[in-house]
Design brief:
Elements (H helix, E strand, L loop, with lengths): L4 E8 L4 E8 L4 E5 L2 E5 L4 E3 L1 H12 L3 E6 L8 E2 L1 H8 L2 E5 L2 H12 L13 E3 L4 E4 L2 E7 L8 E5 L2 E3 L21 H12 L6 E3 L15 E3 H7 L9 H13 L7 H8 L27
Parallel strand pairs: 3-6, 6-8, 8-9, 13-14
Antiparallel strand pairs: 1-2, 2-3, 4-5, 4-7, 10-11, 11-12, 12-13, 14-15
Length: 291
């Protein structure tokens, strides 16, 4: 059967994030995977040039964007999902375990405006869900470990893996965020690597491993099993967990962690404006200084 899936990638170098426009060649129905909002953390301003580039590409190709698909609530960039939705009517979907992540972070930021049961999102996907996109079927795989809510999207011979895996020469995602678990991540990765060897895997991030000069975000199951520096064939769960836990212990928090989490667990919605018309994001302060 001929492949009906078309894929176009959009790389955001400031956050090292890859967004994807995917569509059914016949119906022209499309989805956007992991759209990025351009956020200036120095002055709290934003623009939509990255999302506008995706929208323009969809228009030029005669596509109707039906879905915005998130693999999890990212900690390294803010989502542009609401902007895509406002311009297309697309529904925003994420894994059903986003409610676990919301329960973790609600008290951290003292958030009092979260809609119940993930209600900021239009669609909550359970493991094994099948999503129609024109004549395509998108299968949902729950792949926790990086966070409790991570999912991957399988479409024909392609899988959009989110932050679970990076390119083989860069390795795997961290597992030290609240609710993360290195052993669970190992099992999730092996669920992906049990797919047929020729399956194409599309990363959400790339940081150019040492010795590589160009960004890259597409590989295969076979390439990951043969050469992933963290989890290639022959690496045991015990060895992986020990490596991952030691490595994560020395990692700094992502630059955009605080704004990203607050916005992304709300499906990209910012807090309501206060009486002066300004919206505010919070910075938790943990101080040993005397009051």
């Amino acid at each position: 059967m001929a492949c009906k899936l078309e894929i176009r990638a959009f790389f955001d170098e400031p956050t090292n994030t890859v967004s994807y426009l995917i569509w059914d060649r016949d119906s022209r129905d499309a989805a956007v995977v992991e759209p990025v909002l351009d956020w200036n953390n120095r002055n709290g301003t934003m623009d939509t040039r990255s999302a506008d580039a995706i929208l323009a590409a969809a228009t030029d190709a005669g596509l109707a964007i039906r879905l915005v698909l998130e693999t999890h609530a990212h900690a390294d960039h803010l989502t542009a999902a609401p902007y895509i939705k406002a311009h297309t009517g697309a529904r925003i979907g994420i894994g059903a375990h986003i409610t676990d992540v919301q329960r973790i972070f609600r008290p951290v930021f003292n958030i009092d405006d979260l809609k119940p049961e993930g209600g900021d999102f239009d669609l909550l996907f359970q493991n094994g869900a099948q999503i129609a996109l024109g004549g395509l079927e998108i299968a949902v795989l729950h792949v926790p470990g990086h966070t409790p809510a991570d999912i991957a999207y399988r479409v024909e011979d392609a899988v959009f893996v989110g932050d679970t895996l990076f390119m083989p020469d860069y390795g795997t995602a961290r597992a030290d965020f609240p609710g993360g678990d290195a052993r669970q991540l190992y099992r999730s990765i092996h669920r992906l690597l049990a797919l047929p060897p020729e399956t194409r895997l599309f990363m959400c991030h790339d940081y150019k491993a040492p010795g590589r000069d160009a960004y890259a975000w597409e590989t295969t199951v076979a390439a990951q099993r043969a050469g992933n520096v963290h989890v290639r064939d022959g690496v045991s769960e015990d060895d992986f967990a020990a490596m991952r836990e030691q490595r994560d212990a020395g990692q700094a928090a992502p630059l955009l962690l605080l704004p990203s989490i607050q916005v992304n667990i709300r499906a990209g919605r910012f807090p309501e404006a206060e009486s002066n018309g300004v919206r505010y994001l919070k910075i938790p302060v943990r101080s040993k200084m005397a009051a």
